[in-house]
Amino acid sequence: IPPPTCPYPPFLWLRSAPHPPPQPPYHWWPSASQPRVTDLVCVCVCVIDPVYVWLSLMRVHVCVAEIQCPPHSHYEACGTACPASCAHSTDPLFCALACVESCQCDSGYILSGGDCVPRHQCGCSFLGSYYRTGDQLVTDTCSRRCTCPGGGKASHFCWHTLEELRGVILPPYKSLIQPHLQYSECAIRHGVRDCHTIRTATCSASGDPHYRTFDGLPFDFQGTCRYTLSELCAPAADLTAFRVTVENERRGSTAVSWTRQVRVLVYGYQVQMTRGERGSVQVDGIRQNLPVTLASGNIRVHHSGSAAVLETDLGLRVSYDWSHYVTVTVPGTYMGSLCGLCGNFNGNVTDEFKSASGEMVSSPVLFGNSWKHGNESCPEEPELPSPQCTSEQRALYSSEQYCGALINATGPFQHCQSSMPSLSAFENCVFDLCASGEALSLCQALGAYALECQGRGIGISDWRNSTGCLECQENSDYQVCGTSCPASCSRPGFPADCGTPCQEGCQCLDGYVLSAGRCVPPAQCGCLHRGQYRTPGESFWEDEACRSLCVCEPGSGRVRCRADACQEHEACRVVNGRRRCVPSAAVCVATGDPHYRTFDGRRYDFQGACTYVLVTACRGARDAPQFRVETHNREIPGRSVALVDRVAVVVYGHEILLSRDSLGRVKVDGLYANLPWSRAEGGLTVFRAGLYTHVRTDFGLEVGYDLRHHVWVSLHRRFAGRTCGLCGNYNGLPADDYITPNGTLVSSLHAFASSWKANVTEQCEHGCQGGSCPVCEHPQTYSGSQFCGIISHANGPFAACLSRLDPAPYLQDCVYDVCLAQGDRETLCQSLQAFASACQALNVSLSPWRNDSFCGVACPENSHYEVCGERDINRCVSLPTNTSSAPCAEGCFCDHGFRLSGEHCVPSTDCGCVHNGLYLQVCLVYVGGVDGVCRQGGECMSAGWRECGIRNGQMGCHDTFSICVVTGDPHYFSYDGALTHFQGTCEYQVSAVCHNLTLPWFRITTENRNRGNSLVSFIYRVHVYLTGLHLQITGRAVTGLCYKPMVVSQVGGQPVSLPAFPSLGVSVLVRDGTVVVQVGDNLEVRYDGASTLLLRVAQSYAGTLCGLCGNFNGNPADDKLLPDGQPASNDTHLGNSWRAEESECTDPPPGHRHPLCDVLTADPGPFAQCHWQVDPRHYYTSCVFDTCAYGMDRLTLCRAVGAYAAACALHGFQVSSWRNATDCREFTV
């Protein structure tokens, strides 16, 4: 009986909770499990009684019908759940399961592969599997073909001869073990393993990058340009043309490169996949969320595993994982018709290195350089020696915890090693790790090999947990063999029958689907509008003129559009793949020696070496925010020209100073602050993006300075005709830009520029004028392509910009500067950077123009160079202003897994926190107005552990613990307040339990070493001895704003990852930039890795301790005792007596006084309130000693005073004004 019409659309299944299975006698049809997505229609359910049944929970109509059993079987309402089969004929005798409604074989028949057959027609059991009569199988390596003869014989026959194999594969073949080497392959297709003819070929590039051609030739090429990976070079009527190009970039290592971008040109569309743009691609420059369908369905782009996959009806398949791994698969019809880095696909590996001109070349470098796309003149990759591993590196990276997993015979890839060249993959993996030293390189290498194995239908085991490569997003988990065709919001069942092998990687959890690369519940899906998927809340311009603004309404799945337009002084443009209304602004630039360009486009050169007003709001701008931008120019000795070396921005009541020495930080109102810095509720922000430090406001002013030579000011058109300064009046007329502060229009450049001197009392010169300025005598020498000519080269890296920006002025400035610098390479690079910056400001996509030997950028640790990097990614603190409409920028960007913290790229766990708008790094840093400290993980906290009471005759908030401090070179401040100066260079006992057997035992020692001065010593390593545990903390200084923690390890073991809990009640973590060992409620050890160790012990230890920190009995007079209890004759005698091992130690030098240390004892003074709690006299003595020993070095003074500030802070006194009094604001110690 046909069922009635189903009133519910199929997708409702995905929007509801999982339904309980039907109870007997009902069951799902056609299978015994819950219906698949493709079954979500009105279906029949077979039941006993011929009636209609409606199950509301199932949301599906059911009907009745008689069960139709296959031949030689019959229906039983309560049949055995363990029917007899040829493979297991005795199963019914031992079945413990309840009976089930089912079809059972008739008497004399038995199950054979799902059919009921007479017993004498049973098949064979072989290698643990059952095969029916006549079945054939091929063994794992396709070296044997076996058949089951039947006739009741429990045996099999296998053939091993080449003659038998010739019937199933195409000749020629090279050996019995791998007969499929050239024209066929041993693979599983449609569930059958056999020697199948090769119908496709795949080329790949992975890692740094390692290429493998269609014909199987591996080679390495580290060029950083855009290259043709593969294209149709021999046109034919029956072949569709296509082209795949790749663009490579440096990441960290300057010796290797990685794939940054993949472009596919086919059927008139250009599809671009770019690193970091996960879940989306750009189609003809416009970013679209996946999945995407083009050319009437002939092009399909969708998410598969961790990659974007483009497939066409002609059999072309291109995948890119948005990171490093790209593959191109083509059908056999293209054999012999292709060219590019992927080779010619003719089955011959000996002729792969055929250049773009058709000549055979001898090396991968010559081959790779010849395939630069469009004859780009970006610097060619030179013939350089490959990075070499040290013996220690190779031993480490070859272990099973690293690349050795690839060749481990019992490892996760064991089943793939006979079919895939694991040895070459292993060598590539070791190469990548030696070149980069990053764990990400290991994950990429293993992941690429895993995908190749699974692409051939070969199973692998879980390898990510053992190598630490597991990182899945929210609402997803790792699967060793997950679908390569995941469901998405726009295609919940796409595709219904996935024809590609499974892939290891992250898969959305049950009940979640992909939405632009994120796993979301179906109820949180977005909208499908004109064939494009939009995320919930996403707004977009529907047309090219920005006249129809649409938004995807969350929850409804509907797109609503309304007529709209960009505001006045805004332009409709495509920025980073998105069509946006971009504020229409003008830009003023000062660059080089310096060359100026006003808002109205007038160019002039002025070599004044004073501070000048670049731009300020003036006439008629009283209703607009007031601002002022000044630049200070510094004369270059011997060249009669100057460079911008300092930029000041005065806005919203703050003075922001950017200078050459302020990388990663900014001076605001005279005090240094880490970047990013924000005020005025986000209306004023200072941040670092690539090579430039930016000052951005919410009213359309933005200033960028590269801290070397190039500054630009972008200003909204609301200020048109309302500015003055060296940037002109911004009225659209270049001819009247030379206006002095009194409003006079002058004709003399020198008179105009010098009139804008910011400080009339500044002693400086305004530089040359007229005929006295230097001239370039041989401009033709520097106008060629080896120097400045690269700017205007038609096939150069700036070619895409030539139609948008006139290169002539930039070329002229470049030739002049490089000529005066006599061909100086750095000057050339600065000129090229100025042009590159101007092009990127117009949203022009540039090809890589730098390499290691030409204008290379030295990036700090854990970062890499990008020619077009995202401005607001990988930061510890997100910017309060939206930068999504800003063009990309070139410069150094943090590696994967690291975030920008000030000037350093640190692990995410080492990010600091924001307090009152100030970003604080994880350091021992105390900033004015901050009453707490920043601890790891981004949490601000106040100092604690105090109680109100009377101690030493003083009523107040006292620490419930007592503290011993070892600081400086070093000085020992005992628990009871005694001071010891001792500069020995051995290991010494600082404190230990000596006179009590009931309290938890501990012993703390330090290893002291000289550091640049043989007169003094500092703590090099701290040892913490506990019952059954020995920890050692080794200091490690890092340049920058603070000292980073150190290496912590258990003696005899590997370094400890923090936080750690090595024993019951013992924790080791990083707090306030120091390593902290916490032992229950009794002991805390803090070491900053540089110069200070603090011990905090509970009052229960009073009178039980010994060592250089004293006996903790409340009496400082008896703290200097020898191990035998006798008083020491002097500090040296005391220190040597507590040596932990025999070694020669040095006597301390004499101490002196120094007036700079008076800040410690001054009353009134910044530390006055702390004097009663922490006696400053001993710290004063130590300060005098250190400053004299180090020749009155300012950093030494700041460290000495900082030690007392830290001790005060532990007692709850946050003292910050001492930095101003000692001029220590630039040092965070």
Automatic annotation (TrEMBL):
<dbReference type="Pfam" id="PF00094">
    <property type="entry name" value="VWD"/>
</dbReference>
<keyword id="KW-0677">Repeat</keyword>
<dbReference type="GO" id="GO:0005615">
    <property type="term" value="C:extracellular space"/>
</dbReference>
<dbReference type="InterPro" id="IPR036084">
    <property type="entry name" value="Ser_inhib-like_sf"/>
</dbReference>
<keyword id="KW-0863">Zinc-finger</keyword>
<feature type="domain" description="VWFD">
    <location>
        <begin position="962"/>
        <end position="1146"/>
    </location>
</feature>
<feature type="domain" description="SWIM-type">
    <location>
        <begin position="131"/>
        <end position="169"/>
    </location>
</feature>
<keyword id="KW-0479">Metal-binding</keyword>
<dbReference type="GO" id="GO:0008270">
    <property type="term" value="F:zinc ion binding"/>
</dbReference>
<dbReference type="InterPro" id="IPR050780">
    <property type="entry name" value="Mucin_vWF_Thrombospondin_sf"/>
</dbReference>
<dbReference type="InterPro" id="IPR014853">
    <property type="entry name" value="VWF/SSPO/ZAN-like_Cys-rich_dom"/>
</dbReference>
<keyword id="KW-1015">Disulfide bond</keyword>
<feature type="domain" description="VWFD">
    <location>
        <begin position="201"/>
        <end position="379"/>
    </location>
</feature>
<dbReference type="Pfam" id="PF08742">
    <property type="entry name" value="C8"/>
</dbReference>
<dbReference type="Pfam" id="PF12714">
    <property type="entry name" value="TILa"/>
</dbReference>
<dbReference type="InterPro" id="IPR001846">
    <property type="entry name" value="VWF_type-D"/>
</dbReference>
<dbReference type="InterPro" id="IPR002919">
    <property type="entry name" value="TIL_dom"/>
</dbReference>
<dbReference type="InterPro" id="IPR001007">
    <property type="entry name" value="VWF_dom"/>
</dbReference>
<dbReference type="InterPro" id="IPR025615">
    <property type="entry name" value="TILa_dom"/>
</dbReference>
<dbReference type="InterPro" id="IPR007527">
    <property type="entry name" value="Znf_SWIM"/>
</dbReference>
<protein>
    <recommendedName>
        <fullName>VWFD domain-containing protein</fullName>
    </recommendedName>
</protein>
<dbReference type="GO" id="GO:0031012">
    <property type="term" value="C:extracellular matrix"/>
</dbReference>
<keyword id="KW-0325">Glycoprotein</keyword>
<dbReference type="Pfam" id="PF01826">
    <property type="entry name" value="TIL"/>
</dbReference>
<feature type="domain" description="VWFD">
    <location>
        <begin position="586"/>
        <end position="765"/>
    </location>
</feature>
<keyword id="KW-0862">Zinc</keyword>
